Amino acid sequence: MPERVRGQRLRVGIDGLTASGKTSFGHELAEQVSRAGRPVLRASSDDFKRPWRDRHRYDRESGAGYYRNAFDYAAIRSLLLEPGGPSGSGECALCFIDPLTQTDHSSESTEAPEDAVLIVDGVFAFRPEINEYWDFRIWLEVSPEVSLCRGAARDNDESTHRDRYLPAEKIYLAEVDPLPSVDMVIDNSDFDRPRLL
């Protein structure tokens, strides 16, 4: 762990293509960090999407629309990443809008101790809107073919992954090119044998 963040709050971002294993990896990392003696908070950017009641205001169905409009980056910054940082208040909302029930949880906060590690998984995590807030960045590498296969099997819906999620990822990779900014790349093509690249 870098000396500059030892004893301070640390924000870890986990990114990768859809179905690359970000959430499971985040849970496993949180368990290991907790065993090492640091308090851990877990969050996912999926819980910071714009509410469906506002979907008539913008395109969220196409690949480009999903990439540009699905997530509320102002909420991620103000509710989670800013308070979860070394100089933040420590009062973090780990969920903005529940993606299943659409319940607003933005007023519910969790206290992040001064040495807490906040682990957040999600697609597009290293976009310019929030990239500066991470203290450590992890990219889970899988091919687009693996992403599509896993996502279709998980959600029983190949068309959404093929026509919306993968095109959105292509825009992200082309516009942002996040890999040069990451601290660690892990080949997660085989869940049972992740490999540090």
Feature tags:
globular, six-stranded mixed β-sheet, 5 helices, Rossmann fold, 197 residues
Give a quick account of the main beta sheet: strands, pairing sense, barrel closure: 6 strands, mixed
Q: What integer is the average pLDDT?
A: 95
Which structural class best describes the helix and strand composition? alpha/beta
CATH domain class name: Alpha Beta
Oligomer: single chain
- Rg result: 16 Å
Query: Which residues sit in consecutive blocks of at least 5 with pLDDT less than 50?
Result: none
- The amount of beta strand, in percent, is 15-25%
Structure notes:
- There is one protein chain.
- By secondary structure, the chain is an alpha/beta fold.
- The protein has a single domain (3-196), classed as 3-Layer(aba) Sandwich (Rossmann fold), CATH 3.40.50.
- It is built from five helices and eight strands, in the order E-H-E-H-H-E-E-E-E-H-H-E-E.
- The protein has helices at residues 22-35, 63-69, 73-81, 144-155, 158-176; strands at residues 10-16, 40-44, 91-92, 110-111, 117-121, 136-141, 184-187, 195-196.
- The strands form two sheets. A six-stranded mixed beta sheet has the order 2-5-1-6-7-8, covered by helices on one side. A two-stranded antiparallel ribbon has the order 3-4.
- Strand 7 and strand 8 form a beta hairpin.
- Helix 2 packs across helix 5 (158-176) and helix 4 (144-155) runs antiparallel to helix 5 (158-176).
- The chain is globular and about 45 Å long.
